[in-house]
Specification:
The protein is built from no helices and four strands. It has 100 residues and is mainly beta.
Length: 100
């Protein structure tokens, strides 16, 4: 398996990659690949996300995340929610990925 990744915007476009190796009979095998490097940024929410909630005891609320899109159209995004480092979610907070 071969993974190709570039963080250099100057390499966007078609790049030639050569893979060389030997088989069990010491024959040289060369594979030339033309790899299309696409510009790709993370999907973005179409509006700001609400990040603060004020609730009283025994009150509950549902919050639906805004729609999101991929600016380049390369990916179909999926949302995952993680707590911040050293700050666990309270036990009463849940996330349902099916409804976002």
């Amino acid at each position: 398996m071969v993974y190709v990744q570039s963080n250099d915007e100057n390499l966007v476009g078609t790049q030639r990659t050569i893979i060389r190796g030997c088989d069990s009979l010491s024959n040289l095998i060369e594979l030339t690949l033309y790899v299309n490097i696409s510009s790709n940024s993370a999907p973005e929410f179409t509006e700001d996300i609400k990040t603060q909630f004020s609730l009283t005891m025994k009150e509950w609320t549902n919050y639906t995340l805004p729609a999101f899109k991929d600016p380049e159209g390369n990916d179909e995004g999926e949302v995952y929610i993680n707590s911040m480092e050293n700050q666990a979610f309270p036990e009463f907070v849940t996330y349902n990925n099916d409804t976002k």
